[in-house]
Amino acid sequence: MVMLVCLVMLVLQVGGWVVLNRMHDAQYAHFRCMKLEGLRLHRLSVPFVHLIHVSRVTHRLPVLMFKLQRSVQKLYGMQNSGEKTILFLAEMLCYGYMMVAGGALISLIMGGDATGLVLGLGLGVLVPVALTKDLHGKVQQRDQQILLELPELLSKMMLLVGAGETVQRALLHCVERKGADTVHPLYRELRQTVGEWESGYSFQQAFEHLSKRCGIQEVTVFTTTVLLNMRRGGSDFVMALRELSQTLWGKRTSISRTRGEQASSKLVFPMALILLTVIVLVGAPALMMMNM
């Protein structure tokens, strides 16, 4: 009975993917060309993109879609964020689909043992959840990197503005010093901001876009402080940045302390494993001598 169920599931899964891929390949072919860092199964995404559109998941689960899209926007940019979110959902479904199919195949190979099927069904649920958790973890790490670097950027800007530079020139100088090859998320967003105002956007519009792209309260406070005080210039502007810098350095200290605590907690299991190994190595000869 289990072999029959596994065989039917495997045939339906493989056959359904082939049929949907042939029917909707032209309609959703552009999803194959979209490349997002960390996604490896985008070439298999066409049937799952169709299932997402047919099931209207984006309308049935608006809270989930909002959280996913916000995370995707932070990591991969605002452009085509809706399609990128659908592609990420298709990747999740593809992994779950492959886990279930692999479990059914293992059960067939094992002669009808239900263990493989149960394992495949379990992984088919857990792997998409793990992908979502990993996405949010990357977003949290990105936000922390921005918060750690923002106080240093403020310190540099204070020195340059205090020396007579304009706000625009000070910011441009900070970005240029980091170089075009830096992968730091804050300077990547700042390079895009510089590109926007050089291509025709006003400084205010470019800074507002920076705040939206980063999606962090501290960056919003930074952009608001700069826009409100840049016209005053001189000592007033530097004073406003100094007050904000003190707050951000406190945030940085808090994040560094949290990271240190997380790192120490991650070392508990390896240290316990090493202790257990040492106990076995020391205790085994003593036990052998007692038995003799």
Task: Report on the architecture of this protein.
The protein has 292 residues and is mainly α. It has two domains: 1-21 and 39-112, no CATH class; 144-255, no CATH class. Helices cover 83% and strands 0% of the residues. It contains 13 helices and no strands. The chain has helices at 2-24, 30-33, 46-55, 57-60, 62-76, 81-109, 114-162, 167-178, 185-198, 203-214, 217-229, 234-266, 268-291. Helix 1 packs antiparallel against helix 6 (81-109) and helix 7 packs across helix 8. The longest helix is centred in the middle third of the chain and has 49 residues, at 114-162. The chain is flat, with a radius of gyration of 27 Å. It starts with a helix and ends with a helix. The model has no long low-confidence stretch (mean pLDDT 82).
Describe how the helices and strands are arranged.
Layout (H helix, E strand, L loop, with lengths): L1 H23 L5 H4 L12 H10 L1 H4 L1 H15 L4 H29 L4 H49 L4 H12 L6 H14 L4 H12 L2 H13 L4 H33 L1 H24 L1
Helix pairs in contact: 1-6, 3-6, 5-6, 5-7, 6-7, 7-8, 7-12, 8-9, 9-10, 10-11, 11-12
